[in-house]
């Protein structure tokens, strides 16, 4: 009874004398000491306080204080211009009830890294599933100019205003990188070394997650084939529409980023046609919400894997279809790039250990398309057109300006006639820029497929060792293999 009386008294006092009772100024988890703010641009600082509370913000790099007032709902936000300085900075946020000091802040390049388990895979690897080079990378990771922030796995039915579980901004060190995303770390460490500026990595991933889980309800409701009510009760959180967006993306907005890295798709491989709509829609929605334009979005094509039932050894639906969809999304997502991994898969493990190679190919995209390194090749050779000649098919490729290459014999090619039955075919590089495909079983060929199966090791590259994606020259749904 006494406790209830005190609560009622507190409410009455706050209503009658609101200026006598203050709530501390609160900052979002992503805004803290040791953070990296995107350099040389306008960033946003925001948080919460009592309605109408007056707040003064002192910035070490700007002489004039910023004075703002929380709105009627207790929200406040201000825009701040950052510089190219490499020196540590500080921020003081003060009100009648609070005095917050943020120290050791750097200006640099901030990248958001998201997806499912292959993005989540840490430098230490998973149980029985290694990350090649992870221990040496950990041993040499001390770097005060590389900062890491991790959003822990949390889901929500509604959009959250702040992150509920996280590892706050930390400097890279053997203690902090071991459990951090290997792809994100390898990307960020090399980017920091090449640009010689601070780099901040925000990692927010959940193994086994579908693209639907990373989409807002406003966007996914535009697709009637996705029934939110039915799926919310039966699916785990990482495969339930909107749940990861609500808890692991929405609270990060509007923290200014340079771009995003994405490694996801295995959980959507059975629905390539849906993915072709949903993935570009997700990217557009994120960009609209961040309000910083079409920021760079670089993503990984899923690697080959057996994908077969462990009991019957029956192969599942061909994952080449989702790889094809991911390649096609390049033309649907502005300012995007793809890392082809056709040569990096593991036949019996869905988590390939060669994460540095994946990060390297994402980095090549960023260097070429974002940071102006025009001499850095980042585009894998891509099928363009065909000619039927000499009872075979001659294939032409884009992004093969310096020629095609194979470290061994070309393999994985199939050829078919009008009966739509594919036979294994011989293939060879012609004039260092084309591929000629032929089979004695198909005297009048009309179509070619390359690496069109779940498990395959890519054999076709350009001279910079960027592998070609699996591809097909047909659009048949009823083709067969001999």
Automatic annotation (TrEMBL):
Gene3D superfamilies: SGNH hydrolase. Pfam families: SASA. One of its GO terms (molecular function) is sialate O-acetylesterase activity. Coiled coil: none annotated. GO terms for biological process: carbohydrate metabolic process. InterPro entries: SASA, SGNH_hydro_sf, SIAE. The keyword Hydrolase applies. Transmembrane segments: none annotated. Residues 109-339 form the Sialate O-acetylesterase domain. Keywords: Hydrolase. PANTHER family: SIALATE O-ACETYLESTERASE (PTHR22901). This is Sialate O-acetylesterase. It comes from Aestuariibaculum sediminum.
């Amino acid at each position: 009874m006494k406790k209830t009386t005190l609560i009622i008294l507190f409410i009455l006092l706050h209503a009658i004398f609101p200026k006598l009772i203050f709530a501390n100024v609160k900052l979002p988890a992503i805004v803290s000491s040791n953070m990296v703010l995107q350099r040389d641009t306008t960033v946003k600082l925001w948080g919460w306080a009592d309605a109408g509370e007056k707040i003064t913000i002192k910035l070490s790099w700007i002489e004039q204080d910023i004075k703002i007032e929380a709105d009627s709902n207790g929200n406040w936000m201000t825009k701040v211009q950052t510089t190219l300085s490499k020196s540590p900075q500080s921020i003081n946020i003060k009100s009648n009830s609070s005095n917050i000091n943020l120290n050791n802040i750097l200006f640099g390049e901030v990248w958001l890294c998201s997806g499912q388990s292959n993005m989540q895979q840490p430098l230490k690897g998973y149980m029985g599933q290694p990350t090649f080079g992870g221990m040496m990378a950990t041993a040499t990771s001390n770097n005060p100019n590389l900062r890491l922030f991790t959003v822990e796995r949390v889901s929500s039915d509604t959009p959250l205003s702040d992150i509920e579980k996280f590892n706050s901004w930390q400097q890279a060190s053997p203690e902090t990188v071991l459990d951090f995303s290997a792809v994100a770390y390898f990307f960020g460490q090399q980017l920091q070394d090449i640009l010689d500026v601070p780099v901040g990595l925000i990692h927010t991933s959940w193994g086994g997650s579908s693209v639907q889980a990373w989409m807002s309800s406003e966007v996914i409701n535009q697709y009637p084939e996705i029934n939110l009510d039915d799926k919310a009760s039966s699916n785990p959180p990482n495969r339930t529409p909107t749940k990861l967006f609500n808890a692991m993306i929405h609270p990060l907005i509007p923290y200014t980023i340079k771009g995003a890295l994405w490694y996801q798709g295995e959980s959507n491989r059975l629905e390539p046609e849906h993915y072709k709509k949903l993935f570009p829609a997700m990217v557009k929605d994120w960009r609209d919400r961040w309000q910083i334009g079409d920021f760079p979005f670089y993503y990984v094509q899923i690697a080959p894997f057996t994908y077969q039932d462990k009991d019957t050894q029956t192969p599942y639906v061909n994952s080449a279809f989702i790889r094809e969809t991911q390649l096609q999304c390049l033309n649907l997502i502005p300012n995007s790039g793809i890392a082809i991994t056709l040569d990096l898969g593991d036949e019996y493990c869905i988590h390939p250990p060669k994460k540095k190679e994946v990060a390297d190919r994402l980095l090549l995209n960023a260097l070429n398309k974002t940071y102006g390194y025009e001499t850095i090749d980042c585009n894998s050779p891509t099928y363009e057109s065909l000619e039927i000649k000499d009872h075979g098919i001659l294939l032409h490729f884009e992004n093969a300006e310096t020629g095609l290459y194979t470290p061994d014999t070309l393999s994985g090619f199939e050829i078919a006639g009008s009966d739509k039955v594919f036979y294994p075919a011989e293939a060879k590089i012609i004039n260092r820029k084309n591929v000629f495909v032929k089979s004695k079983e198909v005297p009048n060929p009309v179509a070619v497929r390359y690496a069109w199966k779940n498990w395959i090791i890519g054999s076709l590259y350009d001279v910079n060792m960027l592998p070609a994606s699996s591809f097909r020259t047909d659009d048949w749904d009823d083709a067969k293999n001999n």
